[in-house]
Design brief:
122 residues; mainly alpha
Length: 122
Amino acid sequence: MNKESEDKLTNAIITLHQEIKGLRGDMDKHQTKTNSELAKLNLSVKELRLSVVHLDDRMSAMEDSFNAMRSDMNGLRSDFNKYAQRNDDRADDHETRITRLENSPSIASEPRAVYKKIKKKK
């Protein structure tokens, strides 16, 4: 090789080395930026995970409350059913009396209650 070719080759190698250094610096800047963005992303994911855990706890508590209310409602339903049955029994008695009254010619024919007279004390 002649001297001029060697100089060109040397200059090309030096230029290539400087460009590689510049690219390495740019890569370091991008890597630092990427690392900071990943750190922020990790914090966001951690906060989101904690929010989901808290939400799950609240949902479990709410489900327990609903189950308690549901059992209370079942108790109220049975109490109401007993009350309604008593009213139905009373209504049946009244229906019998009403039927008797409807079949009689007048209300006056309804049998009268006999009351005993109370004796006065002397």
